[in-house]
Amino acid sequence: MPDTPWLTMIGLGEDGPEGLSPASRAALDAAEIVMGAARHLSLLPGLAGETVTWPVPFADGIDRLLGYRGRRVVVLASGDPFWCGAGAVLARHLQAGE
I need a surface site. Which of 3, 10, 44, 61 has the fewest CB within 10 A? Predict the structure, then answer.
């Protein structure tokens, strides 16, 4: 397990990138890799990090994400990722502190 947290999940709402908090923007600016659905990535042109389109079905991207451990990674999801979906699914594959 990495010594420091490596993964940030960012939820994109109906307002798109305009609704991102300063902390979310900072995480995107610092990310080495940004993973998300093609529609999410298209809302954020000009990202400094490598962009990776999350495959369908969702479960097919989990191993790829875990392969990026130790790098600064952002995962984009719809809405609140821990309220209805992606965050809870990914948390089952992570250790505390990641």
Answer: 3
